[in-house]
């Protein structure tokens, strides 16, 4: 790419490294994790099975998977100093800031040490992030000190149980499990690249994840599912939604949940979560949010040829599971942390400091002027 184009490209279309973890947009639409299609993974796998695949490079045996689930289950508790600090964070704090601080604090209390411990540290982070988020949420919003341990077999079930203080339905558990799979990994996106840049300096895994969370907090990268839900909630009927959307387009307002840096015709994750949104809508008797979502999707394609991305139908699916909108992006962190840490491990395995150059656009060399003559 010519240097003149770099200023506006944001490095899009440039290869910044190699990965064996995923393909994004292969042949225009494909998404695979270590060679397995997202369609097959969302149909046949669970999130823990997907994490094993990302971390260890192959699918686990039944015994390995059973043992792994038990291991993660035992890692859900929160150190007392972390609980103490979480209780000091006010309810008005952005939940992504809570996630960032919690991960960093966990690294203070339980440092990674050497890279020989990276798998243990990664699994501890993965298992405890939902617990730390919901411990803060329940205490700050409801004054409740929850027990971070549940008997739920999966992270999805654990999250919903801690949120609602009851066993989730099978459909809700599986829908969230599929969601975590869909969000687990996505090649060199901004937050993942942040994690790899940090890892390339030989920093610890908690710092890498903390940096990635900070990057995801930015509205140009994360939060589209939250923004989509806020838009969907404005409308009572499909007709009202279409008129409202057309007015937004007329004003050239940004419509969140549509378009993608790589996918053009379709986001392969969208159809999967859309089916789950439709299923949950039917089970809860929804006559509003799903029809409104459908007409917005249809109108965006007709007017702008922009496809819905993974975030759009996640909004209504999460809403049907009674997940507060402010927790949508932190829930994304619970999923994508598996991909971030897989990239950290991959970077460490064949490391070279990531240090690109910049095109200088400042003034030419200038002569120093004494202060009295300026």
What labels would you give this structure?
374 residues, mainly alpha, 3-stranded antiparallel beta sheet, 3 strands
Class based on secondary structure composition and strand pairing: mainly alpha
So how many helices?
Answer: 17
- Overall mean pLDDT score? 94
Uncertain segments of ≥5 residues (pLDDT<50)?
none
Q: Main β-sheet, in a few words?
A: 3 strands, antiparallel
The count of β-strands is 3
| Element string (H = helix, E = strand) | HEEEHHHHHHHHHHHHHHHH
- Computed Rg: 22 Å
**Strand arrangement, largest sheet?**
1-2-3
How much of the sequence lies in strands comes to under 5%
Q: Could you give the distance between the termini?
A: 41 Å
Name the helicity range: 55-70%
- Principal-axes shape call: globular
Structure in words:
- It is a single chain.
- With about 375 residues, the protein is mainly alpha-helical.
- Helices cover about 60% and strands about 5% of the residues.
- The protein is built from 17 helices and 3 strands.
- A 3-stranded antiparallel beta sheet has the order 1-2-3.
- A hairpin with a 2-residue loop joins strand 2 (about 30-35) and strand 3 (about 35).
- The longest helix is centred in the middle third of the chain and has 25 residues, at about 120-140.
- It is globular and about 75 Å long.
- The two termini are about 40 Å apart.
- The model has no long low-confidence stretch (mean pLDDT about 95).
